[in-house]
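Issue 218. Parser rejects a valid record. Input:
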Amino acid sequence: MFFKKINNVLKVYRITDWYYYLGLTFIGFILSNPLGINIIKYIFLSSSLLSYAYSLNDFYDERRKEKFFVLPLILTIFILPLFNTLQIIFSILFITIVTLYSAEPFRLKTRPIVCSLCNGFGFTILFLLGYYFQTFPHVGILFASLFFSFNMVAQFIHEVVDIEEDKKNKITTTVILYGKENIKKLCYLFLWSAFLISLYLLHLKIVSLSFVFITFLFVVFFTIKIRDKIDKKLRRDYRILGMVIGLIYLLLIFLNNLNTISILI
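Output the parser choked on:
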């Protein structure tokens, strides 16, 4: 019985899906806080918000009686005073977006274009939560744009994979509205937009050439893969390689921070 309850909690809050989204918060924090002090509270905030988002969506999709989403919502409200004004605003914005996305009578997930933007921008907020905007706000905006581009591609891939299920549930997504081929073109647009953003970051001397090169490889690889076929395997590969590129980004940012600190010393 105990293990069944644990498994139910893991399923409802989708804890196994957190790792790549928590990475956005981690990158945002390390990017603006070289020493990584107090990072745990930021990860806890993002985890609480993700728990709310997934459990609320589960409540309405699965027609559950148990309101699992109440606990993470209460926890989020309880810890928000520990953060600055901008982070509180971002948290409230995230809660608002996921609520409008999943909850009735709004159910923005049933409205094409809007449903895609909700996920693309909504999960990008997790990066913004970690970033300290009081220093170099333009850097935060550029990186947020980079991750928004990647998140939009992830969302479109997800919609293509779930197209039959969405049709069965009478949900009209962006893919259903515009068709797979047009969605592929949007994927190319966002992928290459991400690369152009990385080039601009290089121009501003914010990132290294290695950062741009690894972004280029990622973009080229998935441009080719998406042109070939979008399926569950591609979705899995995008998640896994997305996590890999995130770890490489973290390493490059960390090394850049070390170099900056050594210069200041």
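Fixed in the parser; the record now loads. Residues 1-133 form one domain.
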